[in-house]
Amino acid sequence: MTTHSPSEVKSLQESALEHLWVYLREPSDMAEKGDPAIFVSGEGVHVTDALGNTSIDGMSGLWLKNVGYGRKEIADAAYEQMLNLTYMPLGTTTEPTIRLAEKISQIAPGDMTRSFFTSGGSEAIETALKLSRAYFKRVGEPNRTKFISRKGSYHGATMGALALGGSHLYPKLDYEPLMPGVFHVPQPLPYRCEFGGETPEECAELCVNAVEEMIKFQDPETIAAVFAEPISSPMGCAVPGDNYWPRLREICDRYGVLLIADEVITGFGRTGKMFATEHWGVVPDMMTVAKGITSGYIPMGGCITRGEISDAFIGSQKASFKHVITFGGHPVAAAAALKNIEIMEEEGMVENAAKQGVYLLDGLNEMKEKYQMIGDVRGLGLFCGLELVADRGTKEYFPAEADLANRITQGFAENGLLLRGGDRMNVAPPLCITSSEVDDLVTIMDKVFDQVSKDLGV
Ligand SMILES: Cc1ncc(COP(=O)(O)O)c(C=O)c1O
Questions:
Q1: In terms of C-beta density within 10 A (0-12 exposed, 13-18 middle, 19 or more buried), how is residue 255 classed?
Q2: Cα(10) to centroid of ligand 1, in Å?
Q3: Cα 125 to chain center, whole Å?
Q4: Is the CB of 303 under 6 A from ligand 1?
Q5: CA dist 365 to 300, 357, 423, Å?
Q6: If you measure from the C-alpha of residue 277 to the centroid of ligand 1, how many angstroms do you get, rounded to a whole number?
């Protein structure tokens, strides 16, 4: 660990304020708050900042530190591959990249046999968008060019992914015009069902019917694919009723539309299954992955396809998929991913996510009993969410003057927990978390909710 003196930290921060775009932060706000915090090391679920303060990372970085911080085996695997070979001649590949594709075909649901690797999640989504359209050109249905996605979802920062997204947290206005041909349907969020469904199943049925209506309205022969995260993060972890995904599969099959599961967050164990659609016994046509594939040790993502899709690109050079991502399938990232998956399997981390997820959800539900401001608690595995409301009856959010997000985020940070507060929150610690670390996390959250409840008089 390399800690720094307060003056060294200050000088680094000043440099950051002048030279760096810190994601989703604005420099004058950071300057006022003495930010950005600078981190230097991590171990398990803990991270340590440049001044030597240690905190629990309640968000696993950005939902990605699945095996936790500080796994030397992953660093060693990457180092060894770096010494051997760090790239390959055009049109060739390497052993770790092949072995990773093979491994994924073994652990992915159904016949998802071929992987196109990328450097991250947005590129995986762009790959799925292009693959869908190109697939339908190959199979003689060139009019299938449109996409359906859900309000409130996030699928990435690039232009196609942004067009698919529908979260108010990432407004599109600055970047318009976006890719045309994307149509949004309601999100199956039982707590605030747009159609007034009163149970998760009723909400799911109404929302999935809206997908079918949209397909019919647009003309089924023009729809290429439906994109959906199994559980949407910006919605504060919208866990759909159990009927949603099986019905979505059924509807896509009925109209010949591809079903694409965006497993960028949920893939690689986060929800207590290796891939989240396994909870509902559904095999999508494609899956986009990133984050947990290397537990964030090195950037990597991928689009994983069923054999039926990839077969359409075989047979001639003309039929092949013309799409290149320079760093996709980088051998060092592949070596790190293989070791990461090996650790997950050997140490039963997916099972631990399921077990600790139940324990965490219990802890969050106990807090809900105590604090009126917690309107809803939901989650699957170690992907949990809270919805905070000023009034439980009306489900009204707190007004901007309450400064809710800042109060909570700062309260957590002061007590050694890194987690973003807000109307809708995610709680997603590393999958290696122990019960006593869940206790620590919940104890801090409880203390902060107690204080904020008093401060806001709720
Ligand atoms: C569900 C989902 N899809 C795609 C992305 C985009 O991934 P990336 O930021 O690696 O481009 C994200 C990022 O958070 C995501 O949550």
A1: middle
A2: 31
A3: 12
A4: no
A5: 35, 12, 17
A6: 17
Q: Tell me: the pLDDT tens digits for 262-280?
A: 999 999 999 999 999 999 9
**Residue 430's pLDDT is what?**
98
Q: Which of 129, 265, 424 for mutating ligand 1's site (highest number of atoms within 8 Å of CB)? A: 265
- Cβ of 402 less than 6 Å from ligand 1: no
Find out whether the beta carbon of 269 lies less than 6 Å from any atom of ligand 1.
Answer: no
| Below-70 pLDDT ranges, the chain | 1
Q: Which residue among 23, 227, 264 is best mutated to probe the pocket of ligand 1, counting the most ligand atoms within 8 A of its Cβ?
A: 264
* pLDDT confidence of residue 169: 84
Q: What is the pLDDT of residue 1?
A: 59
Q: Is 373 in the pocket of ligand 1 (CB under 6 A)?
A: no
Ordered structural domains, the chain, with CATH:
37-67+348-456 (3.90.1150.10), 72-346 (3.40.640.10)
Q: Distance, CA 64 to ligand 1 centroid (Å)? A: 10
Measured between alpha carbons, how far is 406 from 29 in angstroms, rounded to an integer?
A: 11
Tokens of 147: 């996409």
Q: Ligand 1 atom 5: the closest Cα is on which residue? A: 156
The residue whose CB lies within 8 Å of the most ligand 1 atoms, and thus the one to mutate among 66, 154, 424, is: 154
